[in-house]
C-alpha cells in the first residue's frame, strides 16, 4: 500500500478571522440565555391608592373628617392570568393629616405588614378633632410592598412606593 501525503498549507489570517466572526454570535447567544431564563423584575402599580382621600369638615370648627381612603391590590395590572401573579401583598400603609408646615398632626392609619389579597380593598376613615383653623393635607401613603410569593413562574414582581393626597381648609 502506498500512502500519499498531502501538502499542508498554513492557516491564513483570513480563515481565522472568518471563523471568529461566525463563532462570536453563538457565544453571545449562549451567554445571554441564563440571564433571560432567571427572569427579570416586572414593575407595575398593582397595589395602589384606590382614589384620592375623600375629606370634609361639615362646617364644624376644628373638625376634619376622612370619609374614605383605601388601597387595593389590582392583580390584573400585571397583565397575566390569575394563577401567574402573587397571591398576596404585604404592605406598609399610612394615612395622616399634615399641617401647612408639613408636620403630622393626626394619624388615621399606620399599618405595618398589612396583608392584602388579590382583588382586595382595605379602607380607612375617621375624624380628627380640635384642629386649629388652617389648611391641612390628608396623605395616603404606601411606603412598602412585598409580594408573596415574590417570584411566580420565573417572574419577580415589584411595586414602587406611592402616595395620594387631598387638601382641606379647617374652620
Description:
- This protein has 1 helix and 11 strands.
- The strands form 3 sheets. Strands 2, 3, 4 and 7 form a 4-stranded antiparallel beta sheet that branches. Strands 6-5-8-11 form a 4-stranded antiparallel beta sheet, with no helix packed on it.
- It is an alpha+beta fold and 171 residues long.
- It has one domain: Immunoglobulins (Immunoglobulin-like).
- Strand 9 and strand 10 form a beta hairpin.
TL;DR?
The protein has 171 residues and is of the alpha+beta class. It has one helix at 13-38, and strands spanning 41-43, 47-49, 54-56, 64-73, 88-98, 104-117, 121-128, 134-148, 151-152, 155-158, 162-170.
The CATH class label is: Mainly Beta
Count of individual helical segments: 1
| Overall number of domains | 1
Strand content: over 45%
The CATH homology group name: Immunoglobulins
- Could you give the count of β-strands? 11
List keywords for this structure.
171 residues, alpha+beta, Immunoglobulin-like, four-stranded antiparallel sheet, 1 helix, 11 strands, 15% helix, elongated
Topology of helices and strands:
Elements: H1 13-38, E1 41-43, E2 47-49, E3 54-56, E4 64-73, E5 88-98, E6 104-117, E7 121-128, E8 134-148, E9 151-152, E10 155-158, E11 162-170
Parallel strand pairs: 1-10
Antiparallel strand pairs: 2-4, 3-4, 4-7, 5-6, 5-8, 8-11, 9-10
